[in-house]
Amino acid sequence: MHGVTGPDEYNTVVNNNTFTNLMARKNLREAAATVDFLRREKTEEYAELVFKTNLKLAEVDDWKKAADLMYIPYDEKLQIHPQDDDFLDKQPWDFENTPGDTYPLLLYYHPLVIYRHQVIKQADIVLAMLLLGQEFTREQKKRNFDFYDPLTTGDSSLSVCIQSVLAAELGYEDIAADYAAYAVLMDFADVGGNVKDGCHMASMGGSWMVFVYGFAGMRDHGGRWSFNPRLPKVLTRLRFPLTIGSCVLQVDIKRESATYTLQKGEALELWHEDEKLRLTGDSPSATRPITRL
After folding, report:
1. pTM for this one?
2. Of 9, 135, 173, 273, which residue is the catalytic one?
3. Is 41 considered catalytic here?
4. Which element (helix H / strand E) includes 109?
5. Is the pLDDT reported for residue 118 higher than 90?
6. pLDDT digits (tens, 9 = 90+) for 36-57
7. Helix, strand or coil for residue 229?
8. CA–CA separation, 167 and 161 (whole Å)
9. Residues with Cβ < 8 Å from 31, sequence gap 6 or more?
10. Cβ atoms < 10 Å from Cβ of 256
11. Which of 1, 69, 54, 65 minimizes the C-alpha distance to 32?
12. Residue 50 Cα distances to 13, 27, 44, 189, angstroms
């Protein structure tokens, strides 16, 4: 895709942003799958859709073809996903000689200076690896994280929470804990010096994600609820409830084990690491050991 912008505000109007192309591919496939489902299972709703939108099945076929042909950038030499077509050709930002009091960069440097360098305001490829984790191998995630994390400035309150989640997934315990502390303290410690203007609500949501997606390792890919808990040394226990459909699940994680309890609902299937669990009213709880990376 040409002339697009991904999540990162320090690299705008670029060609083939990997995040954007991946999301576009997913949207096309989901839209086509939805139409196919309605056509098979919900004929009245499908007829209404066709009537209101003048949808042609040939259009749906085109969506599928476009998704299959979507270009996803990948650099064979570095074995990473370039953030966009030109990112790897840019000059690296001179972090070593950038004064600490000149962050966030956008307040001290002209955008056209920033846009010419390898420097990132907020998670971009790293965010894609969280939202579409099934599209990357573990080795790709590690190489991508190792490349992009040092280039990310922390100038956005929306970034450290995502970086923490991926660091936890990859076993970078200390990095995950440091980013988690930064995310939680964004407003409590007035990290940005702007709490007087209001709280960072999206960052607060990101702090919740740090614990649930990061340290509890929750993922939901294709309706498959899974947990890969990894508590950092600074935590001895993590417990929280989750509403999943009509069910309420309590997750209780300790250093060596995780317990899943169905508090409401008839039955719920989930995965702990590579083991499938089924919780029911007759057997509402399961405790399993945590395998270290």
Report:
1. 0.92
2. 9
3. no
4. none
5. yes
6. 999 999 999 999 999 999 999 9
7. coil
8. 10
9. 60, 63
10. 9
11. 65
12. 35, 19, 10, 53
